[in-house]
## 1
Amino acid sequence: MTTSVMVTITVDGRVLDVRPGTLVAAAVELAAPGRGARVSPGGTRRQPLCGMGVCGECRVTVDGRPHRLGCQLACMPGMEIRTDG
Amino acid sequence: MAEPDIDLRAQVVVVGAGPAGLAAAHAAAAAGLDVLLLDAAPQAGGQIWRARQGVAAPSVADALARLAGAGGRMLAGVRVTMVLPQRVLLVDGPQGARRVHWERLVLATGARERLLPLPGWTLPGVFGAGGLQALVKGGWPIRGRRVLVAGTGPLLLAAAATLRAEGAHLVGLAEDAGHASLARFAGTLARHPRKAWQALRLGVALAGVPLLRGWRIEAIEGAGRVERVVLVGEDGRRRALACDAVAAGWGLVPQTELAQALDCALAERFGGTAIAVDAAQRSSVAGVFAAGECTGIAGAQAARLQGAIAGNAAASDLGAACVAAPALRAQLAREHAFAAALAATFPLPRDWADRLRDDTLVCRCEDVPWSALRGQPDLRAAKLATRCGMGHCQGRLCHDTLAAVMHWPRLPQRAPLAPTPLATLLAALQDPPDTPSNEELPT
């Protein structure tokens, strides 16, 4: 395994370095373990379920675009991820 | 970067870059045709050959190199959102909308995990088995976490092996199927040495993990996240296991949404509703082929064979000289015999409604509980009364569940096939060709 340059992103304003190829969904978990991403209509936090772009529980706002699927998107340098809509 | 043309054209368009799609694209490209391979994920490989932290599996790198060598093109990160008239698909991706024009179309849309509702399944820390496996390959932290793997089918073993290799502490592997059916399946394995070898390797990788045959999840419990799981055995005994995460799946469901939007006929195959195909992988719609798990759950090897058959058939349809298929079909028959045995051993549990409680959320998108759904007469009424299936997943989870649990017929497929920015839908109406390219519009 080569030591690749880390990718710097922010999750809800918090700066985080992740390995290249890390999914946005995984970065959200690394930033705040167990907290979850999406808030359901009933007001509970959810975590990703399917891991393959079907359930939509991983939805976050990425660089201002809402409802991006965190499990289908790799972290890119400078990416701003928000879980608070 | 210059804005590319909104219209893309290829003689053969393949949707889905898993084992079937890669094989189909390569076969058609090798026959000299212009091929375009599409996939919704950022990288090729599908679910089974998924990249680990952005590094492609060797089989995928090899398949992509062979495809490129044969002149085939790949477009990743795009979703098909609509079927347009005159053999055109509308796709949406990071660069905005594209209209993809095809002469022959190969559907290799694969399968998704069957994820069933249970008390507590919306707690953070509950994942699909393949779902958690996929997330971990994408950097989801699992080292040192206590994980229960549960549900039914051989995918559980593969998921468990990945999780353990990444440092998870597996507290158990609970398989719904009981001792009797697993013993029968052992007899089937003996007739398929290659599968027996795979099973043995997984068995070694999972040595020491408690295998709980005939145990199923009764409830997942915890304050704000998973803390423990209550299991119930074949004899009605209960036991509680402390854990941080649950990875649970009940086999796979063929993804037929695009096929349905194209009006392809479906058929029951290997325990699921799949795209109906003939021996040349032709669907019921002229010019449309299908291959792999979307035609019935039969594994990666069957998918590769079907993909090659479909790619060859599509190429020969367009006048290209084509590789003879009988050898591929003989191998495929063997894979299908195994698939039939798998489907019989690991069926969808029949008593699912008994596993639900009044407050169990069946529709996770819209938070619709079982109590609001079980008195409804059919899916349409349930949808109108409760919004079940009107959220992001468009019923892919809850309508699968209700079709299985309530034996309700599925609703016809509606466009768009996935939540789609308005700018993409407007692109469908743009006059081809020669109109100026559209700007990247806000969504």
## 2
Amino acid sequence: MLFMVGYALGQTEIKIKGKFLIPKFFEGAREYIGVITFARNGIEIECQEKIFQPFNEFDAPKHRKLEIKLGEFNGIEIKGETKKIIINIPNWYILKDRKKSLYLRYRNMFFHFYRPITVGFDPGYHVDYGLEFMFDNPDDIGVSEKKFFRALVNRSLKAIKANSWLHELIE
Amino acid sequence: MQTKKKDYLFALIMLFLTGYVLGQIEVKAAGKFLIPTAGGVKEYEGVITFTKAGVEIECQKKIFQPFNEFDTPKQRKLSIAPADLKEIWFDKKNNIGLFPSESFYNRYRNMFFRYARKYSLMYEPYIEYVLVFVLNDPGAIDNEDKKLILFLNKVIRGEIKKEENTCGPKRKILYLFYSCFLWLGML
């Protein structure tokens, strides 16, 4: 296992072509052609169009690239049926420097996911936020890539732990 | 016959009075429209107008654009119909909060602040969204104006279903069960 994790981490980067999705004002999503790169230091999304601008900072210039550092995501989900990669983020209010959190910087890019939870007898739901990327070729993501993602998420969780005031929530 | 005539007369007078009060609503006040941004809260100079047709916010800068519709032109004005609102709210300094209906929230999602309301001690606060307008002069809206706006508020609130804001019977039973349990524990 140690060898496998070391091998997976040793891989420099994984590049996947596809479409970056952002939520529309009513339902559905807008698609922007781009490339997602998973590296040891984090994730990078590069689109053909300049769409990345800090949230409601109308005068700030738009960029093609969005960099997600270690400690800014806590999960990478692969949805085979919909060909989607979902990058989950931690709750911004558990972070020490919450003003710099990815969610507060790029709030309009995130999709909301309602996850059912049960507290005692009372059914409820928890809202998670995530970025969505739709990949073109399912063959781009194999077993070794999934291992790499897992190792990357573990490293990111460690970074979150160092930056949060509430460790128990992350465990 | 006499009482029926009186009833009709009373109904007509009430209709006239309601129409008269609704017809009067035209309150204008200058201030700042606040929006959340990546770097904090931004303020935009503008004017808020309450009319019988709803609420209108006009800013000096063109800032209003439907959520994530980057290609559509930006507008100076935002017109809000009564059906787009759930509630109009004032704080002690006469700052105005506009609580949206779901469709209005979806259209201008990036303009809203998150607002946590606690309905009961047992449950987590309920997250709602609100548009915030801060008045330059808190006295710009006096008590008379406030009454008219609160009347509009009542009209708006009358249109929404009560079930949206109250807990259902299942939750009420659970709440009772929990409170009994707590009391027993305390005893």
## 3
Amino acid sequence: MVKTLGWLAAASVAAGLVMAFGVAPREVTQGNVQRIMYVHVPLILASYLAFVVLALASLVYLVRRDEAADRVAHASGEVGVMFVGLGIATGSIWGKPTWGTWWTWDARLTSVAILFVMYLGYLLLRGTIEDRERAARYCAVLGIVAALDIPLVHFSVYWWRTLHQPPSLMKPGGFTGSSSILWPLLVNLIAFVLLYAYFVARRVRLLRAEAEAVA
Amino acid sequence: MSYARRALAVAWKDLAVERRSKETLNALIFFSLLLLFVFQFTLGGDRERLAAVLPGVLWLGFVLSALLALGRTFLVEREHDCWEGLLLAPGDKSAIYLGKLAGNLALMLVVEALVLGLFAVFFDIDLGRALPGLVVVVLLGTLGLAAVGTLFAGMTANVRARELLFPVLLLPVQVPVLLATVKATEALLLGEPLAAVGHWVKLLAAADVVYLAVSLLTFDVVLEG
Amino acid sequence: MPDNWGFVAAAYGLTAVALLIYWRRLAKKERELEALRRLKAPRS
């Protein structure tokens, strides 16, 4: 199963690259640097998926104490943090030529940065507790707290940036939603979701093998 | 022993220990004084900049004190080898959580009141009109910090690199509380009525409800044997 | 408008390298685990 996922992921990544560089047009206002969006957006969206899965798996673990759920949460956390970190980095690389700056504290960037640090903490907690069962329990609790915190983070940051603020906030030269951009984006999104699934599946398999080796 | 009495017993014990040793309280007061002095040295001359930065610095002081206080929540149990006792306690362990929370709240509120008073005196800030609103905001904000902080303190009590892990886990999660309290304090100190920061207050209240509910439901899991 | 291909390359390159490193880390751990398993339960 893992192998099939792997090949599927590889194929769709290849397709994604073709779409991003061969099919997608050169963007009118930003130029070719806009092509970074075909990795940046899928990375961020796939990381959101990872964190949703993490939250659900944590809940399942707390209720049923099923170790498989814990392994899924663990793997999803790893891949999620990696993806969101890369998402932030690629966004920053895109931002420098487009906005003139590597970083800005607008609502979206701030929220994603907080997300990154929160789930990095999740991984740190994992790494610090040696006892597998205790780590599973604690991380499940943290996973749920983090998930419940996300709407609070979203609103507080959004209000912080938009209320009593002059309306001339920098907005990314965003999509005008033309289909020539939409299809390459969709293909790449599917590619990164498949990549996520492949990495999680492989990591879970490794975690199970590690657990059995110790038993 | 009934639930409420168990919770009260935990809180009372902690406060009694604190009253005798005053370790944490002293550390927090000393730390707040330090913050006051540093603030004065860096911004004392410039009245305008001081006013602009005050809400942030005030809550920075509150948060750093909170980290100190909350981090020590289970210190007594750890140092005197009573941790097993906690794990083996019969009945609903969330009573322990509430007791610890109450103790932490009391400590934090005392220190915050002191710091606020000191700041008002030394920087000649007129708190008069803003005070009722400030009390509401400080209460809600402190509850939010303490609610999650007590839970995380339980989680990190027996973990390697506890002193590092605890703030790393707590602070990102508490960003909404920090944002809300600082922005609300800022507005209140500028003379705005509490109604003007209603959205922040509602956010704080919602956050408090969420944090308390989750902590009460999951504290048992944290203290499982 | 300059095309900034350098930035595009940096973004794609960074992503590729990071994913590759993770992939290789997984493969390495799998190999180590397999070696350990062979040691513990040698097949006849």
